[in-house]
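Re: the 141-residue chain
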Amino acid sequence: MKDKVFGEMQFEVGWCKTEAISLWGNLYTFKIRTSTTKDDVPSEKQQQAYLSFKKNLNEISKKSLGPVNDFLSNNIDEILGELGEPLPTNLTDLLIPNQVLFFKNGKTAIIFDVAWTDENVAILLGQSIKVDYGYILEGEI
């Protein structure tokens, strides 16, 4: 499917494509995904969220780094318990890029896999930036 804003996408539990995104000074490869069914196309809110995400990526990167580092620091005992020493100097290096998810309500989540738990770590972008395990996304889809 070719969307006028997202471009060429394939269906995999939502319409998806892969894109390189610069975040916190690193270039990551993320899956870009919309929370839509195969019979739906990305909504106008999702398209606007994607355009806003792309336009404001530098600001998102700057504003999310503190909350991400706070989350990682607050969970350091759990991380050390599973991974042990030594940890990377930049704790963000523990985050493995997964996807950027655009919800029907216009919110956006940047989702990472991690080695210390089966949970994902998510950055939920809305009126504010929230960082937590993936359960914060419940109710958004």
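Residues 57-74 form the longest helix (18 residues).
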